[in-house]
Amino acid sequence: MQAMLPRRHDYGMKGTGGPRNGSVINFRTTVNSGSVRRSSAVLPSVLTFLVIVASGGLLLMIEKGMLNTMETPPPRGSGKRLDFIRQIGEHSPSAVDVDSQILQEIRNRTIRTLCSQKNMPHGIWSLSPLQRKTLLQHILVNDQYHFLYCYVPKVACSNWKRVLKVLNGALESVNVNIKMDHRSDLLFLTSFKPEEIRHRLKHYFKFMFVREPMERLLSAYRNKFGEIESYQKKYGVEIVKRYRKGRAKDASVTGDDVTFAEFVHYLLDEDVERMNEHWMPVYNLCQPCAVSYDFIGSYEHLESDSEFVLQQIGAPPHVRFPERQTWYKPVTTETLHYYLCTLPQKLLRELLPKYILDFSLYAYPLPNTTTEHCRH
Question: Read out DSSP for 179-211?
Fold first, then answer.
């Protein structure tokens, strides 16, 4: 990674580039999957990465259910994840999602392939100071149970913070009805000296959770600009004045009516390494090339993946992952479909490269916004 900050068209990794207006929606069809091994050593990082994406026939196979009858290698580390799934499956078949195992292995292999490139970071000390600061500020530490959790906003991080506070004795129960304080009673990796950081990175169980990138963005947009006045004043006012014609000097702008298209315009002009954490790409928040995570859970498999993590860290039986609050408004497939299909396609084509690492490292198919699909 270079210390120099990426320009508007950069994707958050060294050596990226390419035409701004190229359609990322057609990545899978533009690269020959047979060229992966021959070309990976010489292609620039982004092209190498796109080859990985394009060769991901695995993604299509998952979508078509073609892998459900195949044996898959265990995830990195051990086969405990598969054993755990089989155990809970014996008692509750509905709790098991076979795709969860497959996705874990795809993520592991894709991350290993991308991160093996010589110009990728191979440890936190090879990151730029800004990248390392962001990472260390997002890794929570529990020394009693020996684990590190890289929290990602809008991916159930509030509930995981509740779990951490219960484990360290600051909360009696995950169900205590109090407003979450995201800083107090929590220990961050940035608080430690370099040698202490190295020790924990080497010996502790490390995990994170991911979510479909556009769904996470939409969740942040609806929450921050629809409900949080401080975000409306800090970001909303700026966005409206910058992107809404004739409002640049309007003192009456409140920032509570930012459109999704205006929000996307704003994201396109933002440097990924200086974004607000709620819409910064997961790659930049948790740096999976610099930190070798033992487990990457999915928002889509939140219940079973969280249960697995709690077993791995040896949490007491009474500590369970919290149920979603009754006031929680999920981003449904239909809602996401509506927002993406009403967004000008030029904006979407320019936005996806900013989050391409999150799509492909974590095995999320690129959104289908063809005219035929959107018509339905």
Answer: PPPSSTT--BGGGS-HHHHHHHHHHSEEEEEE-
| Pairing, β 147-150 against β 139-142 | antiparallel
Q: 182 pLDDT band (50/70/90 cuts)?
A: low
Rg (CA), the chain: 21
* Separation CA 346–CA 218 (nearest Å): 18
Give the burial string for 47-79 (b: 16+ CB within 10 Å, else e).
bbbbbbbbbbebbeebeeeebeeeeeeebbeee
Going by C-beta distance under 8 Å and a sequence separation of 6 or more, which residues neighbour residue 89? Answer: 95, 96
Residue 235 backbone phi and psi in degrees, to 5: -105, -40
Q: How does residue 308 score in pLDDT terms, banded at 50, 70 and 90?
A: very high
Picking from 306, 301, 299, the residue whose alpha carbon sits closest to that of residue 320 is: 306
Identify whether the C-beta of residue 144 lies closer than 8 Å to the C-beta of residue 167. Answer: yes
How many helices (H) and strands (E) in the chain?
Answer: 19, 4
Which of 197, 181, 81 has its CA nearest to residue 139? 197
Residue 167 identity = L
Let me know: does 296 contact 107? Beta carbons within 8 Å: yes
Under 8 Å between Cβ of 187 and 143: yes
Count the Cβ atoms, other than its own, within 10 Å of residue 291. 20
Average pLDDT over residues 180-184: 71
Condensed to tens digits (0 to 9), the pLDDT of residues 186-240 reads 999 999 999 999 999 999 999 999 999 999 999 999 999 999 999 999 999 999 9
φ and ψ of 181, to 5 deg: -95, 115
Going by C-beta distance under 8 Å and a sequence separation of 6 or more, which residues neighbour residue 125? Answer: 132, 194
